[in-house]
Amino acid sequence: SATILAACMFGSASAADMTVGFSQIGSESGWRAAETTLTKQQAESRGIDLKFADAQQKQENQIKAIRSFIAQGVDAILVAPVVATGWDDVLTEAKDADIPVILLDRTVDAPDDLYLTAVTSDLVHEGNVAGKWLVETVAGKPCNVVELQGTTGSSPAIDRKKGFEQALSGHDNLKIVRSQTGDFTRTKGKEVMESFLKAENGGKDICALYAHNDDMAVGAIQAIKEAGLKPGTDILVVSIDAVPDIFQAMAAGEANATVELTPNMAGPAFDALAAYKKDGTVPPKWIQTESKLYTQKDDPMKVYEEKKGLGY
Ligand code: GZL
């Protein structure tokens, strides 16, 4: 847009004089809510005027919001894309309006010249870390696994499933016997886990739960307890995000492992944007955030306290 052009021509501009539109998925999980909080804090601390739009997990609302940001002539747009497909047209409209788009925490199946960069973790790797932990923990014993998938068609649901299955391949003692979406929410995670328990001999035939995020795991833990079983011992629980509540569950012996996903995707995004605006520095197409395994051995209540201050 004109502002970016001017800044490129005269340099010296920082992010401070930018207006940025943020199309957020919704607040389906504790992690998502923390990402929103941190994005607003990061914008505030950098003097960025952030226009925020919550899509209630509907792609059509995200597309509407992006079109409105284009009409407003914002300097840049952040998008956390709820699903991976269906973005080509609206991203082309942003490109034609010379407005850079940055993807947060999820990717899209679209030509990569339609966005400036994507700030995400390695979602396949996260599933792989979770799967490897389970392989090592069951150590060759037969183990029927149930899987709570993330939002259908989202890149985390696709990639976390892929990574987990890669880790289990070659270990025939581990079998995924049920797999269904819990849409990344506690409520749906509990509901679907209740159906898994009923379908698997009251849960007696289930050895482990793999949930694509901690919120579904926390809902499932409730269902396991209501079925009279002990989560964390009768049924192992491994998930992803490392939100505070999973560490409380770990401290209570009700969850076993989680793979950390930072909710601060906006920091690297705004840094890339400021450099791009200041002197046209083009960032890599993928800015990867770290993934770290936490287990009950990692002093869960200490981690809980640390996390409570970080946007959660
Ligand atoms: C993953 C992110 C996922 C989180 C969930 O990058 O998109 O969305 O793991 C959230 O908690 O709903």
TrEMBL record:
InterPro entries: Peripla_BP_I (IPR028082), SBP_2_dom (IPR025997), YtfQ_transport (IPR054837). Transmembrane segments: none annotated. Keywords: Signal. It comes from the Bacteria. It is found in: Cell envelope. GO terms for cellular component: cell envelope. Residues 21-269 form the Periplasmic binding protein domain. GO terms for molecular function: carbohydrate binding. Gene3D superfamilies: 3.40.50.2300. Coiled coil: none annotated. Residues 1-15 form the signal peptide. SUPFAM superfamilies: Periplasmic binding protein-like I. Belongs to the bacterial solute-binding protein 2 family. This is Monosaccharide ABC transporter substrate-binding protein (CUT2 family). It comes from Rhizobium subbaraonis.
